[in-house]
């Protein structure tokens, strides 16, 4: 193992501790409040939002595979991650610029930021998967991308549950449905919406919307990128253990 790999896997263990930590009292309180708010929202509204996000993500999910490069073969972890960080920086700047433009445009353009940002996030994950050597044309690889997305943008409680699945991905993926329509889109959209609601609401405020949009989008992409790096590091180690056994 190279010095770079040793440091990367030490960093991975620190990241795992953060992901595994139990929800704090604040986390529980925030989640409880959000659950109460969700109960007040009529079921038909929940259904409409779920369907809208499902269609949005599917469109990007199945469209991005045609614009993503072939999986990168036979590269060191250090080279792969240098390329990944370049892609993260590219998408950070794109998301920041998009957030500033839509934030400056008031409520209507602010609302348009939601699907645009999802597209940027999913495309970033496709690029990262490909750089780590995974074929995004494979349906199960696209499901893994959805799990990385969930892990990055869920409550601490939701994060704990998704992480358990991802820790043993090679085994867990065998239990996944063969039809993407069977994916739990309701939980996916609700966790994502609850996570970013407060941060993104300020983007709709006149005057400060542009600055908020730029900063929030930059940070969201940064979080997603770091989550993806650690998820693929974890998966590499897991696959090596399976090979040894």
Write the layout of secondary structure elements.
Blueprint lengths: L2 H18 L4 H16 L2 H21 L13 H28 L1 H26 L7 H14 L3 H12 L1 H4 L12 H17 L7 H36 L1
Helix pairs in contact: 3-5, 3-9, 4-5, 4-10, 5-6, 5-10, 6-7, 6-10
DSSP strand tally = 0
Instruction: Please give the radius of gyration in angstroms.
Output: 18 Å
Which percent bin holds the helix content? Answer: over 70%
Proportion of strand residues = under 5%
Mean pLDDT: 77
Cα separation of the termini: 18 Å
Number of domains: 1
Helix-strand makeup class: mainly alpha
String of helices and strands: HHHHHHHHHH
- Major β-sheet annotation: none
- What characteristic shape results from the CA principal axes? globular
Q: Count the DSSP helices.
A: 10
User: Low-confidence parts, pLDDT < 50 over ≥5 residues?
Assistant: 104-112
Oligomer: single chain
Organism: Daejeonella lutea
InterPro entries: EcsC
Protein name: EcsC protein family protein
Q: What brief labels describe this structure?
A:
mainly alpha, 245 residues, 0% strand, EcsC protein family protein, EcsC
Short account of what is shown:
With about 240 residues, the chain is mainly α. It is built from 10 helices and no strands.
What do these coordinates show?
With 245 residues, the chain is an all-alpha fold. It is 78% helix and 0% strand. The protein has ten helices and no strands. Helix 4 packs antiparallel against helix 10, helix 5 (106-131) runs parallel beside helix 10 (209-244) and helix 6 crosses helix 10 (209-244). The model is unreliable at 104-112 (pLDDT under 50). InterPro entries: EcsC.
């Amino acid at each position: 193992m190279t010095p770079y790999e040793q440091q990367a896997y030490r960093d991975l263990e620190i990241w795992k501790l953060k992901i595994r930590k139990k929800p704090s009292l604040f986390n529980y309180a925030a989640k409880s409040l959000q659950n109460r708010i969700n109960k007040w929202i009529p079921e038909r509204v929940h259904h409409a939002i779920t369907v809208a996000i499902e269609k949005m993500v599917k469109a990007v999910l199945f469209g991005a595979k045609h614009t993503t490069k072939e999986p990168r073969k036979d590269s060191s972890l250090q080279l792969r991650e240098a390329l990944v960080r370049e892609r993260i920086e590219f998408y950070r700047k794109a998301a920041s610029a998009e957030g500033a433009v839509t934030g400056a445009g008031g409520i209507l353009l602010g609302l348009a930021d939601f699907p645009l940002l999802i597209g940027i996030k999913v495309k970033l994950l496709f690029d990262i998967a490909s750089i780590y050597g995974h074929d995004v044309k494979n349906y199960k690889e696209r499901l893994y991308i959805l799990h990385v997305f969930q892990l990055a943008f869920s409550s601490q409680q939701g994060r704990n549950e998704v992480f358990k699945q991802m820790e043993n991905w090679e085994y867990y993926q065998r239990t996944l449905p063969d039809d993407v329509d069977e994916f739990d889109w309701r939980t996916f959209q609700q966790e994502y919406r609850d996570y970013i609601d407060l941060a993104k609401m300020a983007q709709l405020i006149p005057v400060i919307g542009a600055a908020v949009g730029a900063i929030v989008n930059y940070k969201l992409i940064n979080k997603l990128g770091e989550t993806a790096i650690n998820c693929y590091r974890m998966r590499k180690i897991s696959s090596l253990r399976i090979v040894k056994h």
